[in-house]
Amino acid sequence: MRTITGFQPIAVPSAHTLVLGSMPGVLSLKANQYYAHPRNAFWPIMASICGFSPEQPYLHRVEQLQAADIALWDVLHTCVRPGSLDSAIEEGSRVPNDFAAFFQQHPHIRLVGFNGAEAEKSFNAYILPQLNVSGIRFVRLPSSSPAHAALTLAQKITAWREALCIKP
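^ thats the sequence. predicted structure below, dont judge the formating
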């Protein structure tokens, strides 16, 4: 089993919202793109919320997030995980990203949305106890993963829009 390493954050200094995943999946790592799995609902959700086409090239979608002052990152910097499922992350292998530095460089962040339970669990366990920030609200979003099929795409869009306080 090998250690996998996530991506750098996508963020502009004016970002007010941060969406956190746990660790990119196999297809995302291969493509070097956040949420590259074709059945992951992240880009359709964000496209609906921010008013762009999910079919646009990756760099255009990233620019649209940045224009909306929405940052994107993962809680984990590295971990050991066969495949893409969060449940397969090996115990004791989670190494978090440097959020103290991130929040210092992005002082306008007021909302952090966790894309699923693992992101929230890892953040609360490995980052929150050492983090010294105030004025930030934390909310768990329904996972955009195709493995989380309890909600329809429309239900996920509604839940994300409400949680991120973005009006239609």
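The chain has a mean pLDDT of 93.
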